């Protein structure tokens, strides 16, 4: 596993990604490529098209060429690494694969994307069956779509596109927004503990369906407390904090407090230590406070949070 996998998966379906086209999906549908979670498999499970796979699988190619799938990133951004996972594809995996990327604003059609000038970010590389393959990407450009090429055919279970979110915040000029939203470019940069689940889950869109879709720490036995630091979408003034403990019935924190900073050195209080209830969305107004770039959310003493929302407005800078 590589360090870049700690960054959000920009292509994930639950973050808005979509496999908008594929030249072939005879055996297994293209949409599986960006599903959350590990691929599943049940042997000797046959449908009308053969063994059922949790992945994308094309027919056996009898002519020159290769197969491909086109993915719109749910969160446009700078790609730091690609994972091509061929889990459970053992006799029908592609021996080689490559990945290309392109940036196209607005809502392009498949035909417009096919005609675009694509950049190769993962060169044609050898891959194996039933294995994860990690490819670092050294490219500082912002991309909106990727194309997975497999040579010549076969099956891929998952495609992960890890990177840093780079939204167009000009859309919010003069408007309020969630400064802590992953889709707006916020990111957890430090965390005391992530034993059960990733802290970046609290910045994800939508509501958490269960505990695993939030952030949960191990039980503390040292008298301290757990915390995380969020780099906001941009310098801004926070007016409302939402602290959601939904699904956390017996492991919600007893209390929460929030601090902010604009220079990374001087921290000041935004929300004093405040009692929380289990399985409850909480909303707290934030009094007059200057613009901040980062916040620290302390939970007392430990437990989990489903979501954190910090509503406000970007500063003029």
TrEMBL record:
<dbReference type="InterPro" id="IPR005164">
    <property type="entry name" value="Allantoicase"/>
</dbReference>
<feature type="domain" description="Allantoicase">
    <location>
        <begin position="16"/>
        <end position="165"/>
    </location>
</feature>
<dbReference type="InterPro" id="IPR008979">
    <property type="entry name" value="Galactose-bd-like_sf"/>
</dbReference>
<keyword id="KW-0659">Purine metabolism</keyword>
<protein>
    <recommendedName>
        <fullName>Probable allantoicase</fullName>
        <ecNumber>3.5.3.4</ecNumber>
    </recommendedName>
</protein>
<dbReference type="GO" id="GO:0006144">
    <property type="term" value="P:purine nucleobase metabolic process"/>
</dbReference>
<dbReference type="GO" id="GO:0000256">
    <property type="term" value="P:allantoin catabolic process"/>
</dbReference>
<keyword id="KW-0378">Hydrolase</keyword>
<dbReference type="GO" id="GO:0004037">
    <property type="term" value="F:allantoicase activity"/>
</dbReference>
<dbReference type="Pfam" id="PF03561">
    <property type="entry name" value="Allantoicase"/>
</dbReference>
<dbReference type="InterPro" id="IPR015908">
    <property type="entry name" value="Allantoicase_dom"/>
</dbReference>
<comment type="similarity">
    <text>Belongs to the allantoicase family.</text>
</comment>
<feature type="domain" description="Allantoicase">
    <location>
        <begin position="185"/>
        <end position="313"/>
    </location>
</feature>
<comment type="pathway">
    <text>Nitrogen metabolism; (S)-allantoin degradation; (S)-ureidoglycolate from allantoate (aminidohydrolase route): step 1/1.</text>
</comment>
